[in-house]
Amino acid sequence: MPSVTQDTRVASAPVRTRTFIDLRRFAAEAAGSDPAGRNSWLDARRMLDLAPGPVSVAALSLEAGRGAVERLPGDEFILVLSGDLVIEAGGLRLALGADWSAVLPAGCSFAWRTSAGARVLVMRHAGPTSEAPGSEGAAPRLVDPTAARAPSNPPLADLLVGPTPQCHSHTDYRSADGAFSCGTWDSTPYHRRPMVFAHYELMHLLDGAVSFEDSAGRRGTFSAGDIVLMEQGAECSWLSTSDVAKVWAIYRPA
């Protein structure tokens, strides 16, 4: 009788192409109060499916009310999608409406409240902190879209198709380890060949429009008001035919 060998191998799940993600669509699909009835800053959130690592993105749905966080475990860039949100820490008070963003540094202590409920996008960087709760470095801060921007480096010349754009940037926050930063940026139109993103980048477009195409041929165009996440490892091109301005939150490892 022939011997029988059992094949115990398990087929691995297909690897998803890393690409750009429409975060407004994600947040709309994740909308609604938490089914477990939670109204906690750290718990009432739906997580975006990303590769395990120091970066996570979530849609946070808060019902009318208030709460507090004793010590935030990581840097959090927050962008209010709808409703009202007040953040208070020490003598600082940030009142945020729709399309306003802020940074809550790792280690900070704060209270929050919303009178009508709020939907918030959160990008967290789970990096180290050298700040003690309540210290100046751990204070929440607004990402100011009106801040003056200084000239910044354009895309690499060997990636450009056509003229070199004029770019400007302003940094509102940089983490203790230097890997996570947030601010604003603008540029004249340009076309860039596909490049592999060595970082995660959340972009909230303030003006203009951008078209992307990834390595699988998937295309998407985003315009003012849209929010897109570029995954680390994604290979994408860029095409803008008008001036573009954006709020950005970037995780770029050393």
Please render the helix and strand layout as text.
Layout: E1 20-22, H1 23-29, E2 45-47, E3 55-62, E4 65-69, E5 75-83, E6 85-89, E7 92-96, E8 101-104, E9 110-114, E10 118-125, E11 141-143, E12 150-152, E13 167-174, E14 180-187, E15 190-196, E16 200-207, E17 209-214, E18 219-223, E19 227-230, E20 235-240, E21 244-251
Antiparallel strand pairs: 1-19, 2-3, 3-10, 4-9, 5-8, 5-10, 6-7, 6-9, 8-11, 12-13, 13-14, 14-21, 15-20, 16-19, 16-21, 17-18, 17-20
Looking at how many chains there are and whether they match, the oligomeric state comes to single chain
- Weakly predicted, low-confidence segments: 1-13, 130-136
Note the total helix count: 1
The value of Rg in angstroms is 20 Å
**Largest β sheet strand count, sense and barrel closure:** 7 strands, antiparallel
Tally of DSSP β-strands: 21
CATH 4th-level superfamily of the largest domain: Jelly Rolls
Provide the number of structural domains.
2
Shape: globular
CATH architecture of the largest domain: Sandwich
Q: What is the strand arrangement across the widest sheet?
A: 1-19-16-21-14-13-12
CATH fold-level label of the largest domain: Jelly Rolls
Terminus-to-terminus distance: 61 Å
Name the beta content range: over 45%
Helix content: under 10%
CATH class annotation of the largest domain: Mainly Beta
The topology string of helices and strands comes to EHEEEEEEEEEEEEEEEEEEEE
Kindly name the structural category. mainly beta
